[in-house]
Fold this sequence. Notes:
Elements: H1 10-16, H2 21-54, H3 61-71, H4 75-90, H5 92-110, H6 116-130, H7 133-144, H8 150-162, H9 170-184, H10 191-195, H11 205-214, H12 224-238, H13 260-263, H14 267-298, H15 303-314, H16 316-324, H17 333-352, H18 357-384, H19 391-420, H20 422-443, H21 452-455
Amino acid sequence: xxxxxxxxxxxxxxxxxxxxxxxxxxxxxxxLGLFFDIYEVFLAGVLASVLxxxxxxxxxxxxxxxxxxxxxxxGMFVGALVxxxxxxxxxxxxxxxxxxxxYSVFSLLGAFSxxxxxxxxxRFCAGIGIGAEPPLADTYLSDLLPARRRGRFIAxxxxxxxxxxxxxxxxxxxxxxxxxxxxxxRVADHVRLRCVGRGDRLxxxxxxxxxxxxxxxxxxxxxxxGGRRAVRVAGAIAGQSLDEPAxxxxxSPAGTRIGTLFFRPPYGKRTGMMMIxxxxxxxxYYGFGTLVPLVLAAKGYPIVQxxxxxxxxxxxxxxxxxxxxxxVERVERKFLVTFSVLGMGALGLAFGYSGSTALVLxxxxxxxxxxNIFSNSYHIYQAEIFPTALRSTAASGTYALSRLTSAAxxxxxxxxxxxxxxxxxxxxxxxxxVLVSLTxxxxxxxxxxxxxxxVNAVTA
Length: 460
């Protein structure tokens, strides 16, 4: 009688690792990088309010300014498509660093802008760099983190990003852009992508060293007794002895062609779901963050007071992100997305129809709190539902649609605000949020606590 030993794959070993120094370092580094996207997006509304008054811009020119600071007429869209696909080809870390480099250069140049047009052009160029930043961050951390802690640490990365204050200015954004790549050099690119379609041929030398580093074993593979022992410890954690020959890991069953995302179950349904999701979710999340100063001005508040109210409302972003931490691993993320987006719709309506200062502040703050529970949960979710070899391509490609919606959004919502008021504008937003909830609720799979390979098993 013969018996065979089923050996765990690299992905299985990654999921069995304890959280270590490398996981934490990656989370902090990605959080710093995500600051740029948050900074770029939410500075748009403040700039619009100030520049409208400072440069005597007309109502017709205001949407153009907002749209340019968002996406630069497809800059972020193109950046998301190109860099997202590149990350599946050359590695997440390299694409992420390229992102940061492009953004840092043009953000620094933007600090010396002396006209609104020059500022818009340079921020358009910077937008190309940050186009794929959130989905790249989601993909990178999803690949690296064990299944049981994946949601919590991605939520921590976004919480770190929201602790940055946009008012710090262009120079601070560029400065952090210079620091984050240095931190990233100390974080190895994930091993899941390196093993797709190649088996475990890199094991044990480089893969064990990477797993050991992820597990927090500082002296992994240094050589000598101490380093050799560290590698053995890491190998034991990963489920395999150092000296055992590695078993081949079969190629990714999903394949690597983009057509897989549209024509092979279960990915076609998921790709369609995320396309609808990103076209609509932007109206609620970015719509509030960028248009709230204009909404407050439309309610009759002077510019200084409206900016102060915006700042109070924006406190909900880091607080909401912190509130998501205990939820993302305890509540199924599919349901967390659907219910939080409905909460955004309801609170948006309450904010739009609020007639007193107290209610404006309360509902504005609650809206931003709930919106960041929504944001953190969907950023985790969108990277979990696609296969490793196409994870960045899928997440970035669908997310790119949100950049197009961001470009069009001011031309849709600002005219509604000007002609019908804040209440009607938020009714439009609430309708979009209901559609988002139904789409994810009906089409989305469950992911919380499940290994990525189990979530993405091919069904046909």
